[in-house]
Every structure is written in C-alpha cells, then in structure tokens.
Amino acid sequence: MAAKKKKKFSIRKLVYNDKYLIALSVLAAIVIWVVTSISYSPETTKKIVVPVAVDFSDTLAEQLGIEYYDSTDITVEVTVSCKKYLAKDIDEGDITAYLQTGTVTSTGYHSVPILVTPNEGQDFAIVSYYPTSAEGYYDIYDEQSFPIDISFSNTNFTADGYVTGQTTLSEETVTVEGPKGYVSRVKNVSASVSLDNNLTESQLVELELVALDENGNKVDYVKIREQVTANIPVLKVQNLEPSVNFINAPANAKDLVEIKYSVKSIEAGVLETAADGSLVLGEIDFSQVKVGDNEFTFNINEIGGVTALDGTKEVEVTVTVPSDFETKTLVISRSNISASAPSGYSAKVTSLQRAQITVIASKDEIDSITADNLVMTCDINNADGSEIKTGTSAYPIIFTLKNTKTAWVYGTYNANVEVTKAE
C-alpha cells in the first residue's frame, strides 16, 4: 500500500476558511477592546480615609526627648485620581500619611503638617486631603510618685454591731506619668469609694484613681501607672480577753508561769472569722524570760484586723517565773550544732561566739539537765526569700530541749557558719 502524502500548510487555504476567519476576528476584537480600555479609560476620583502615623525617628524632637501627647487616632480623608477600572482596588493600604514631626523643635502646642503620598508602584495621584495639619501637645516625659487619698461618699455603711477597720492598699504610692508640663501640676492622687449600706463583710475595691491639681481639678494628659485595690475591713464589735503565745518555751509553759494583763478585756472590732472571744496580742520569746517578773508591752495598733474601740492603745503583760525555778550553765560544742542550708548550698559551723549557755528549769529537773538534752541548729534559709549570702556569717542558734518538761534556754547565742555554693 502506498504511503499517505503529508498535507502542506497553506496560508491561502486558512484565509479562505470561514471558521478560522471568524475566530481570528473575535480574538482581534477582544485585544483591541482591552488595549483601548486601558489606554483611553475615563479618569475618576475616590475618597479614602487613611490613618496618620506619628513617628519621631531621626528627628531633632527625638534627640531632645520630645513626645506627642494628644490622641494618636488621627485620620485624613484623601481624594485620589485614577483610571476608573483601578478605583475599586485602591484602599488605605496603598497610601502613607504621617505627621511631619521634623518641624517640632520645642515643647508646647504645635500645628504640625500632615504629608500624604501614594506608596511606591501605585498608579494613581493624590488630588487633595483634609485636614492638612494636626494640632497637639508636645513635651518631655516625666514621672512622680504620690500617696493615695481615699474618701468615702457614704461613711456609715456598716450594719449595727459592726465598725470599719483601717483600710489597706495594694500599693502605698502610685506613679503619675506623662508630659512634664502637666505632671508638675499634679498635687495629689485621690479615689472616691462608694459602698452599699449595712455591710457585715469586708470589701475589696479596685480604685478609680484621679490626678488632681491644687484646685482639685483633674489634670489632663497624665496617666497613673499602677492598678490599686483597697481592702476595707468590716469588723464585728466584741469584748475580747487578751492572750499571748509563747515560742522557744516548754510545751506546757502557760501552766508553769503566772501571766497578768494590764486590762481584763478590750472592746474592739475584729474580723468575724477571727472573733472567738480572745485577742492574741502577739508572741513572747521564752529566751527572754528569766526567773521572776518579766514585762512585755504590746501595741494594739500593730495587730492586723483589730481596731480598739475603748481607747486601749497598749497592753502590758507580766510573765512571772516562780522562785523555785533555777538556772544552770552548760558548755556546748560547735560539733553538736547542725546547719540547715537550702538546695544548692552547703553550710558548716566553724566556731561559736560563746561556748556557755544558760538553762532555766524547775528545781526538780535542773540537776538532771545536761548538754545531751540540747538539739541545736542554725537555719541558713532566708525566710524573706532573699539571696543566700555565701562566706562566713553569724547565725542564731535554735535550741530545742528533749526529755524535759520545764526547761528552756535563756539568752541569745550565735554561731559562725561558712556557707558555700554546691558545685
């Protein structure tokens, strides 16, 4: 069979083919329409709201420490001119507007020009914009600390049988910050508190703080850095019997000594959760108690959650150790003293400041007490959470007496302890 002949391409046949001519004509018309639309599209305008940036970079104002203190929520209405087919795609992201802060060279109120430009590569023109400038206050930053003045809009807000205690604040002072010219006008920071009536429970209130000038007017432009809460105790009125707690004492210390108080009872306002009929004045350290009379004074105002209502300010407590108690001197050794160090540290007792201590006990026990009854430790842990100090320092010796019922160590004694960081 003879091979088929290949058909030759012929422009003449293509030109005289109606189907090809129709397709070519449609394609040509589309191309001409697109080119004409782009080249001869009518111009239009569009209004766009654009935020204005406030930037002091590389300006004299930045070198002088000047800042802008009015609202930074500045906008301009920009009118742009563009091809109609482009208008719908142009938005605020295609335009840059900013304050010309380079014109600010001093503090005070200034009207600063606003500059508006299309971003690079944009095919439209800025016709106009408004406003063309923005007025604001410019100044150097400053800050000052002030105590807080609290006032109550209603003073009798407690129920019958209750009184108000001393209000405490989460922060005793606050920082007022802002432009120097206005911070200098602040004379005090105040907060007005309004509470419900007939309260029987303490209140925790977040304060609305206001910076005021010497005439009691609010100072503009400044801010108060801290958030402050006020704890307003509502206390139940009760007649309370005074009492004390003992530390470094025999377990039955209150049975061994006589305790006298300068008052039999105190009329006071106390938190209802703590109102059990007694008022704990504080602690008495038995290392300061000797044979005979020992007097201690407690300030009522230093007791948290308590307000004395009968005028009592201080209570004197007399602890009398009976005359049948005796003293004894014991010799101690540093090798018998342990040192408790926190994790990551080691501690070693290197020497004693005094090798002799005084023990007090009843006449029946005093002869049987020896150094073997003593448990002695030095606690290197800082209760306040502060950093542990390395090197050799003096620490108090804590005494515990075992196998005794009436004995305690009288006086304060220190040991020198070497503290090192563990490797």
What labels describe this entry?
423 residues, 10% helix, mainly beta, elongated, 5 helices
Low-confidence stretches: none
Strand content: over 45%
The total beta strand count reads: 31
| N/C terminus separation | 100 Å
- Radius of gyration of CA atoms, rounded to a whole number: 43 Å
**Which structural class matches the secondary elements?**
mainly beta
Please count the helical segments. 5
Shape call: elongated
Q: Please outline the major beta sheet.
A: 8 strands, mixed
Averaged pLDDT:
90
Helical content stands at under 10%
If you had to describe this structure to a student in words, what would you say it looks like?
The chain is mostly beta strands. It is built from five helices and 31 strands. The protein has helices spanning 11-15, 18-40, 60-64, 180-183, 253-256, and strands at residues 43-51, 66-68, 75-83, 95-99, 108-118, 125-130, 133-152, 162-164, 168-169, 173-179, 188-193, 203-206, 210-212, 223-224, 229-232, 234-247, 258-261, 266-270, 278-285, 292-299, 306-308, 314-321, 325-331, 337-340, 345-352, 356-362, 374-379, 391-396, 398-401, 408-410, 414-421. The strands form eight sheets. Strands 2, 4, 5, 7, 10, 11, 13 and 14 form an eight-stranded mixed β-sheet that branches. Strands 8, 16, 18, 19 and 21 form a five-stranded mixed β-sheet that branches. Strands 1-3-6 form a three-stranded antiparallel β-sheet, with no helix packed on it. The model has no long low-confidence stretch (mean pLDDT 90).
